[in-house]
Specification:
- This protein is mainly α.
- It contains 7 helices and no strands.
- The protein has helices spanning about 5-10, 15-20, 25-30, 35-45, 50-70, 80-95, 100-115.
- α5 packs across α6 (about 80-95) and α6 runs antiparallel to α7.
- The longest helix has 20 residues, at about 50-70.
Length: about 130
């Protein structure tokens, strides 16, 4: 699990993470990218006792999102952090599923901009 994104992406800013996770390169790296995005439904079929590493990793991503909220001047909001992590994973899954490269890029860009506050409206993490 730890190698899903590399420690560099998680040790940087939210912008750094978004650029790395929601990138065309990560989208193309199905076998070396995010395990949760690539195998989510299959991971759910594992016996409960074997899903501990997945649970720990997702908890870690949520904690990172809460830290990024604080670094951005917002009060940590666990519910919003969970929604943001789910948005990242969902965007990656959707961008890999479609057969339209323009739509695929648009999905990645839209979520990246929304979560980092670069969209027209307020950021999701606000």
């Amino acid at each position: 699990m730890q190698n899903m994104l590399g420690a560099d992406a998680l040790s940087g800013s939210l912008d750094d993470f978004a650029k790395s996770y929601l990138s065309p390169e990560h989208r193309a790296a199905v076998g070396a990218g995010c395990t949760v995005a690539a195998l989510g439904p299959e991971l759910a079929r594992l016996p409960e006792a074997e899903r501990g590493p997945v649970t720990d990793h997702i908890r870690g991503l949520i904690a990172h999102m809460e830290n990024w909220q604080t670094e951005s001047g917002f009060k940590p909001d666990r519910s919003q952090a969970i929604a943001d992590v789910a948005s990242f994973v969902g965007a990656l899954v959707m961008s890999r599923a479609v057969n339209d490269p323009v739509l695929s890029d648009e999905i990645l860009e839209s979520v990246r901009d929304r979560v980092t506050g670069k969209a027209q409206d307020q950021p999701i993490s606000a």
